[in-house]
């Protein structure tokens, strides 16, 4: 666990101010524990240099207050972290020098600052702070005030020393556990964010491949469509007297025109965001146009009563929306329902078809990879493209099977209203 934290701590550079704030809070906790310990020593009648010890704690408290204020005002976090850890070591050395030196069980408290430095500022500073702690601890063997119970009851002094060792171990364990637990949570959150980013990158790579193939197909189909259009026009002129044939040729010409317009839109890319529109009226108008292209499908449209909000919709939304209703119409036996609502200021579209069922694997992979299509000429790209488009617009797409049969697709999209 510690090895993973050491190897991954460099990833938390962006979270260093949070780490410094956490260490500052832990320092306040340690100062409070130190004050309580001095109070207990005074109540038990120990003879200690109270003014010197209080001066050491007060100096560290003043420094911690200045450090927290500087961090709040936007000062660089790394220098403040290093100064704080250095002050911890110096204040601890001062307290030990005034209360028995190396015989004082507080020596275990050298470990947390060294650990924090190794995790958050690895390199020269961490090694320097570790060396300083070792030298300060070694100096305390010769330079210190006498242990307060020296020359008195040796058994009582030893028992007090054991209690002090337990207290310092408990404080060190609390400090290390608090900080390492926070660091582990930060690493877990960062790993989750990286996994989501990798998933998004994989989806974008798949879409890029689809886009490249689409661009190649658009380039390849332009000439045949233009050629067929010219041939249809020529046949219309040659067979103007044959009314049934002319009707078929007119239909062919209209379909070729639709293909040409689709290729033009593909070449031009996504159009810029349009003007403010009446949301439900525009949805009804678009669905009415879709009905004229799909007269074989029975579509039920439901919109909420009341005022029609004026919003802005990105033009990329419509292809994603029509992909979904086309899929629902073809999978649902030619019958579907579209229900619009505005929960929490977002557009919600519930697209329901009453036939079909998605497997658990399809539900899990929906939108992340091309699906196995049940349509005769389907490639299984519609849901993935819609999912990617809605995600880019800040929306979501969820699919689930209905208990009474069929599939429910729920689209949620944040709206930009008129200012």
TrEMBL record:
The lineage's top-level taxon is Bacteria
| Coiled-coil portions | none
The answer to whether keyword Kinase applies is yes
Taking every annotated instance into account, which residue ranges of this chain make up the domain Histidine kinase/HSP90-like ATPase? 321-416
Q: Which Pfam families match?
A: HATPase_c
Gene3D superfamilies per the UniProt record, alphabetical:
Histidine kinase-like ATPase, C-terminal domain
Q: Which UniProt keywords apply?
A: ATP-binding, Kinase, Membrane, Nucleotide-binding, Transferase, Transmembrane, Transmembrane helix
What molecular function terms (GO) are annotated for this protein?
ATP binding; phosphorelay sensor kinase activity
> Under which main EC class is this enzyme filed?
transferase
Keyword presence, Protein biosynthesis: no
* Known catalytic reactions: ATP + protein L-histidine = ADP + protein N-phospho-L-histidine
Naming one, the record's GO cellular component terms include:
plasma membrane
In terms of SUPFAM superfamilies, this protein maps to: ATPase domain of HSP90 chaperone/DNA topoisomerase II/histidine kinase (SSF55874)
Question: What is the name of the protein in this document?
Answer: histidine kinase
Organism name: Aquitalea aquatica
